[in-house]
Amino acid sequence: MPGTLVAMPGVPPEGEPVPADGALPATATREVGARGFGVYVHVPFCASRCGYCDFNTYTSAELGGGATREEYADTVLAELRLAARVLGDTPPPRVDTVFVGGGTPTLLPADDLARILDAVDRTWGLASDAEVTTEANPESVTPESLKALRAAGYTRISLGMQSAAPGVLAILDRRHSAGRATAAATEARDAGFDHVNLDLIYGTPGESAEDFARSLDEVVAAGVDHVSAYALIVEDGTRLAARMRRGELPYPDDDVAADRYLAAEAALGAAGFSWYEVSNWARTPAARCRHNLLYWAGGDWWGLGPGAHSHVGGVRWWNVKHPTAYAQRLAAGTSPGLAREILNPDEAHMEDVMLRLRLASGLPLDVLDPAGRAAADRALADGLLDPAGHAAGRAVLTLRGRLLADAVVRDLLP
Questions:
Q1: What is the pLDDT of residue 8?
Q2: What 3-state class would DSSP assign to 228?
Q3: Which residues contact 245 (CB under 8 A, 6 or more apart)?
Q4: What is the pTM of this model?
């Protein structure tokens, strides 16, 4: 289905323990940042839980002591100090990207988001051209807060629009009005943000083709330079999944999702956007999300916050999920890391193929084994890979290939 991401290799439920001091193997820190270095900050707070969301987020009523918004920035800074000690003599040459996600990061005061960014800069140094992104719900920002974030050094904002149709927003349990996302995008541009993204979700039960066309029209009219569009995925344990099990709503339809993806490609392409990853379009190369490109290209990043994942030199680890447990570990002077895994060459290759094939730049054919190259030849014959890209030695998805990206990946792997 378009807009989905191939499942990553299963993370062991327990992994191996993270040392109390968070120390990494010397082999992992030898060339930190050789492929770029980013910082991800997870802010777990939401004003309410959307019906489709299974992210590691919490409303105020779900949290206990030690995990309040007022204390959160200081807790994140404690993990940043631990990170600085872990990398110690082998710090990254610079921080290329910072991405503050959630949750709703902009439920924190702009001053707290500014303090976190300043601490990252003082710890490792921001590159002069660093991309600094925050996610935001449209109702959680104002012209004043946006100006404060821009003045603090944030260069990019990603707003959760999801749809322009009131009925679709109601099914998704979104709190903002139908026009608020595009108004917030205009306010962000007026505040001086270099890049503004709007997120869309398509394939929601009850969404008509006209609803999605209107959403695309409003995104284009908002003047943003980046659009992300994802097929609705119904995750177990969410309110939306429960409603579907009870028969209150139909399950998403794959054919409808494919039609919506084709509509997005047509509308955004006509407006001057180009795809650079299966679910992401940008007006210019400079508008592409560099932080996500860092992930897809196998770079290094440190994830701060409860449930955040990190990757340095082939070692991936993940923090405890609950904000209270996260705060308690840091208060005790120990790593919040829950477990980690060290990727072996086969796992690293699998992830490389999964992620790079989704990019418009494609995957070098010479990284595939003979069976994979034979599969690429078959995909070319089936119209799933681009002939010009193949002739240049790369596997590049065609539009039809993007619709079947997961299947293409499976065929290319052993």
A1: 36
A2: strand
A3: none
A4: 0.94
- pLDDT, tens only, 112-124: 999 999 999 999 9
CA distance 145 to 155: 14
List the chain domain ranges: 32-342, 345-412
Tokens of 366: 């010479």
Number of C-alpha atoms within 13 angstroms, CB side, residue 402? 25
Q: Among 3.10.20.580, 3.20.20.70, 3.40.50.2300, 3.40.50.10470, name the CATH number for the domain at 32-342.
A: 3.20.20.70
What is the CA angle 316-320-325, rounded to 5?
155
- Is the pLDDT at 241 greater than 90? The verdict is no
Contact 289, 280 (CB under 8 A): yes
pLDDT tens profile 305-350: 999 999 999 999 999 999 999 999 999 999 999 999 998 999 999 9
* Residue 45 to residue 61: CA distance in whole angstroms: 11
**What contacts 109, CB < 8 A, 6 or more positions away?**
none
The continuous run of DSSP H or E covering 411 comes out as helix 405-412
Question: Average of pLDDT values for 59-66?
Answer: 66
The string of pLDDT tens digits covering residues 152-198 is 999 999 999 999 999 999 999 888 888 999 999 999 999 999 999 99
For residue 367, which amino acid is it?
V
Amino acid identity of 412?
L
Cα dihedral sign, 393-399-400-401 = positive
CB 104 within 8 A of CB 125: no
How far is 43 from 329, CA to CA, in rounded Å? 17
Give the position of tokens 């932080």.
Answer: 291
> Cα Rg for the chain, rounded, in angstroms?
21
Q: Are 263 and 209 in contact (CB under 8 A)?
A: yes
Contact 202, 264 (CB under 8 A): yes
Contact between 162 and 155 (Cβ < 8 Å):
no
Q: String of b and e for 8-45 (b: at least 16 CB within 10 Å)?
A: eeeeeeebeebeeebebeeebbeebbeebbbbbbbbbb
According to DSSP, residue 2 is labeled: T
